[in-house]
Design a protein that fits this description.
This protein is α+β, with helices and mostly antiparallel strands. The chain folds into two domains: about 1-60, SH3 type barrels, CATH 2.30.30; about 70-275, Fumarylacetoacetase-like, C-terminal domain (Fumarylacetoacetate hydrolase, domain 2), CATH 3.90.850.10. The chain has helices spanning about 35-40, 40-45, 75-85, 150-160, 215-220, 240-245, and strands at about 1-5, 15-20, 25, 50-55, 60, 70, 100, 110, 115, 125, 130-135, 140-145, 150, 175-180, 190-195, 200-205, 230-235, 255-260, 265-275. The strands form three sheets. Strands 1, 2, 3, 4, 5, 6, 7, 8, 11, 12, 14 and 17 form a twelve-stranded mixed beta sheet that branches. A five-stranded mixed beta sheet has the order 9-19-18-15-16, with no helix packed on it. A hairpin with an 8-residue loop joins β1 (about 1-5) and β2.
């Protein structure tokens, strides 16, 4: 199944959970998609009201306010390229367990949303990722596409402190366009591509994950619990960001970034105007 959050003209701004059936969206009988995920396949099958043509609906982030966002670092090629750019090898510890950082669940953007250009950077980057979405019982319910937007110059300064990325990734994460349930897409293999203004900039393969999705989920749940709607990002696929290219063709306002994962769809966003330093507007 292909699950989404959508809204229509005159509907509530937070939208409704839905199931896409061909050219129609069937509204699901739940307050939001997190409740649908908590109900498992039975919750996703329940519907109410008339179906809405996809062409008349706006897709929002599938999970607009996830309880948490953990972004892992699970593609060896990306880790090796990023470390080589700093003149360092991949640390031995990276091979021992899947590492992650927490991103900002209050800065989630959906398909076709404009992402403001963050203040204080001249090196805005996209990151091509897949992400697992947690459902009932802490199990992976399905998968979506994730863009872990990054301000590389801010990140470079932060990483010198030794606590990992923070403000460099605090401003935006894009998710969507849908969640494809795990019975239809198991996250084991898919061609992944990124385009900027129609030009292909990245191409990778989801099967190149060094750690499996069960490994990633097991690390995420260790000493804690996973709740429905939580997001587990794969990390960036090899070649999946401008930093790896080394060509300094950083994103600028007006650029359109399309991330595609075969079997899920296309997550498209435009980079918006530069934000003033004091900006604190909610997405």
């Amino acid at each position: 199944m292909r699950l989404c959050t959508f809204r229509t003209a005159g509907g509530p701004p937070e939208g409704w959970p839905g199931r896409i059936d061909g050219d129609l969206i069937v509204r699901l009988d739940a307050p939001d998609l997190i409740a649908v995920l908590a109900g498992g396949s039975q919750g996703a099958a329940a519907s109410t009201g008339p179906a809405v043509p996809v062409s008349e609906a706006e897709l929002l982030p599938p999970v607009p306010r996830p309880p948490s966002v953990r972004d892992f670092f699970a593609f060896e090629a990306h880790v090796a390229a990023a470390r080589a750019g700093r003149g360092a090898p991949v640390p031995a510890e990276w091979y021992e367990f899947p590492a992650f950082y927490f991103s900002n669940p209050a800065a989630i953007y959906g398909p076709d949303a404009q992402v403001p250009y963050p203040a204080g950077t001249a090196m805005l980057d996209y990151e091509l990722e897949a992400a697992a979405v947690i459902g009932a019982g802490g199990r992976i319910a399905g998968f979506t596409i994730m863009n872990d937007w990054s301000a590389r110059d801010i990140q470079r300064q932060e990483m010198r402190v030794g606590l990992g990325p923070a403000k460099a990734k605090d401003f935006a994460t894009s998710l969507g366009p849908v969640v494809v349930t795990a019975d239809e897409f198991d996250g084991s293999s898919a061609v992944m591509t990124a385009r900027v203004n129609g030009e292909e900039r990245s191409r990778g393969e989801l099967s190149d994950l060094y750690f499996s999705w069960p490994d990633i989920a097991a690390q995420a749940v260790r000493n804690t619990v996973l709740r429905p709607g939580e997001i587990l990002g794969s990390g960036t696929v090899g070649t999946g960001c401008i930093l790896e290219h080394g060509d300094n063709r950083w994103l600028v306002p007006g650029d359109t970034v399309e991330l595609e994962v075969a079997g899920i769809g296309i997550l498209r966003n435009q980079v918006g105007p530069r934000q003033p330093a004091a900006s604190g507007a909610a997405p």
